[in-house]
UniProtKB/TrEMBL annotation:
<dbReference type="InterPro" id="IPR006315">
    <property type="entry name" value="OM_autotransptr_brl_dom"/>
</dbReference>
<dbReference type="Pfam" id="PF03797">
    <property type="entry name" value="Autotransporter"/>
</dbReference>
<dbReference type="InterPro" id="IPR003991">
    <property type="entry name" value="Pertactin_virulence_factor"/>
</dbReference>
<dbReference type="InterPro" id="IPR051551">
    <property type="entry name" value="Autotransporter_adhesion"/>
</dbReference>
<dbReference type="InterPro" id="IPR005546">
    <property type="entry name" value="Autotransporte_beta"/>
</dbReference>
<feature type="domain" description="Autotransporter">
    <location>
        <begin position="333"/>
        <end position="619"/>
    </location>
</feature>
<protein>
    <submittedName>
        <fullName>Autotransporter outer membrane beta-barrel domain-containing protein</fullName>
    </submittedName>
</protein>
<dbReference type="InterPro" id="IPR036709">
    <property type="entry name" value="Autotransporte_beta_dom_sf"/>
</dbReference>
<dbReference type="GO" id="GO:0019867">
    <property type="term" value="C:outer membrane"/>
</dbReference>
Length: 619
């Protein structure tokens, strides 16, 4: 078998190549179109001579083939009912027959003279007798060629016919075992052991990861090995006692033919010295030179498509839009008026995703709003407003496993109160629509998915500015002053759960995701005015400030189902610390420019930067 070739064996059920030299290729025993067809059951591959060396060249030298890259793909039904689900098989000399009705399986011997068949026998199949070419075979030889068993999977039967001058070299091959139970995600093989291969001691098999696009996990078979015993009770052709059996504790023969399925309790009684090839390939010294291999379950690890889907499905949108009054409108105390405003922002952060290494995200957004000053007295003001916002985010999984894109559009309605002694309160209601796309690569190519969902929430923020003035204290905050502003905020936000199907057939279901974020912060700044004539106040001003604080999500649990596999986790950024700077510039009576720069760090979260710039036009 030349390196890189993939062999599909679709119709033969007992394949007996004389020589097999896997050199990095793939030998796939599955049936692509009719894998579960009753007339085409599991394959049996017997190799009379398997080697990982090239044949001798003319000059007498040999080359070693990359056997470690060779892969055998088998299919099994470990959870099958021993009484119902096994594929009943009778085969003779490479021709396989199958039992389909209750009376099938009856074998009528041909005529025998001096231990040699002089006439053909027959096998009852589908209720009819099918001839068996027995004529000319010795009884013992015919018995050795007969196989009559129940198969629960494909089977590998390797031999090595090497000369005494050629000592066999150790050979290693990978085995990928596919099982239908994996497909629905309900894999649980505890209590079952299935025999799937017999090899010479120097031919060693190890499990290979089986990655399936329609499940969140990939699986590696738990492979065990025992000493193989060829115990022939009778060579007369009777099939009541079969070869290739193991002995129980009492020394009695226990059937362990090809593709034998044991309940684990029975198996523990039958076999001593069970060793795992995964933990220690050389743990068992096979004295007879032959080894039986068994599979008893699978180790499970989330695969790349699963990581991508669950990470992006677990995106928390709320941290993107957890806004504050200063981020949205800048300073509102000094001469607030009816007006229009616009703001642009950009952000880059790194987020720990559910069941994955997380993702990097780039976000860009714009907002457009309108304010109405409903009340303005010497004591304070009330400002009502609304804004629409649009954002686009792109996510790249950190290990290069996939990517995602988010498009969002939303609406805010807000009411802001402030008095001239420095206190303020800001109330916000939010509603958003999200369109999420994701893309990754599975074993069989690109996998994509998309879904739409809604988010809504409410926020209340309070604070108080303590300031100094340069001259008369009665002038208030219109003039140059240093100020300090403690702040508190509590924001609730819910993203509605959604169900969707990936292009590979994988089904994802997200639970409603709730966040209740509390924030405590402080802002320290300096205000500069353009004049100090109390009689003619010049309302142009500028101010700069530094800010810092802490956030904590009191809810923030995320649950995502990938098929029947459930993933739970807390939202990234459960507790974070932020810091930054900002400023306002009222550069004429009607126009004000404001902006902020912020960074944030915390639990599975890192915000490299968030920059926003806004412009307010007052009527």
């Amino acid at each position: 078998m030349d390196s890189g070739f993939k062999v599909w064996l679709p119709t033969l059920n007992v394949i007996e190549p004389k020589n097999l030299r896997p050199t990095g290729g793939t030998i796939d025993l599955h049936h692509a179109e009719d894998k579960w067809n009753e007339a085409n059951p599991y394959q049996y591959l017997m190799v009379k001579n398997i080697t990982d060396e090239a044949y001798p060249l003319e000059n007498g030298t040999r080359t070693v083939a990359p056997a470690e890259n060779s892969l055998f793909i088998l299919n099994t039904n470990i959870m099958g009912d021993p009484e119902k689900d096994g594929k009943r098989v009778f085969s003779f000399d490479g021709i396989t027959y199958y039992n389909k009705v209750e009376d099938d399986g009856k074998i009528e011997d041909g005529t025998v003279e001096d231990g040699v068949f002089t006439g053909n026998g027959s096998f009852v199949f589908n209720g009819e007798e099918v001839p068996i070419e027995l004529k000319g075979f010795k009884v013992a030889e015919a018995a050795a060629r007969m196989r009559h068993d129940i198969r629960f999977g494909d089977f590998l039967d390797f031999r090595t016919e090497t000369s005494k001058a050629q000592e066999p070299k150790e050979q290693h091959y990978r085995v990928r075992i596919n099982d239908g139970t994996i497909a629905d995600g309900s894999i649980d093989y505890q209590g079952r052991v299935l025999k799937f291969a017999t090899t010479p001691a120097h031919v060693k098999l190890s499990g290979d990861w089986t990655s399936l696009d329609y499940t969140a996990f990939k699986y590696k078979p738990k492979i065990w090995k025992t000493e193989h015993t060829d115990k022939y009770v009778d060579a007369s052709g009777t099939l009541s006692t079969r070869p290739e059996s193991v002995l129980n504790e009492q020394g009695e023969i226990q059937d362990a033919v090809n593709s034998t399925l044991f309940e684990r309790d029975d198996y523990d009684i039958v076999v001593e010295g069970l060793e795992s090839t995964e933990s220690d390939p050389d743990a068992l010294d096979i004295a007879t030179g032959m080894t039986d291999y068994w599979v008893s379950g699978y180790t499970k690890e989330i695969n790349d498509p699963g990581k991508t889907a669950t990470a992006i499905a677990g995106i928390s949108f709320n941290p993107i839009y957890l806004s504050t009054l200063r981020k949205r409108l800048g300073e509102v105390r000094y001469g607030a008026q009816d007006g229009l405003w616009a703001k642009a922002m950009m952000m880059k952060d790194s987020v720990g995703g559910i069941a994955s290494k997380g993702y990097d995200q780039d976000l860009y957004g714009v907002s457009f709003g309108c304010d109405h000053l409903v009340r303005n007295t010497e004591e304070g003001l009330w400002l009502l407003g609304a804004n629409i916002r649009q954002a686009h985010a792109e996510q790249d999984l950190m290990a290069g496993q996939g990517s995602g894109k988010t498009d969002a559009i939303g609406l805010n309605a807000y009411a802001t109160w402030a008095n001239y002694q420095g206190a303020y309160a800001d109330f916000v209601l939010s509603a958003d629509h999200y369109r999420q796309k994701l893309s990754t690569v599975g074993e069989h190519g690109k996998i994509t998915g998309k879904y739409n969902t809604l988010g809504w929430g409410a926020s209340i923020e309070v604070g108080h500015m303590f300031h100094t003035t340069r001259n008369d204290l009665s002038w208030g905050p219109w003039y140059n002053s240093w100020w300090l502003e403690p702040q508190l905020q509590l924001a609730f936000y819910r993203v509605e759960g959604e169900k969707y199907t990936l292009s590979s057939g994988g089904r994802i279901r997200q639970k409603d995701a709730d966040s209740l974020i509390g924030r405590a912060g402080i802002v320290v700044g300096k205000k500069f005015n353009y004049g100090e004539d109390r009689e003619e106040i010049d309302r142009r001003y500028s101010q700069l400030y530094l800010k810092a604080g802490v956030k904590h999500d009191f809810l923030g649990d995320r649950t995502v189902w990938f098929g029947s596999d459930r993933f739970d986790g807390e939202v990234a950024g459960k507790t974070t610390f932020y810091y930054g700077l900002g400023g306002d510039w009222q550069f004429n009576e009607r126009m004000r420019l404001y902006g902020q720069f912020e960074r944030e760090t915390g639990d599975d979260y890192e915000k490299d930067y968030e920059v926003s710039v806004g412009l307010k036009y007052e009527f």
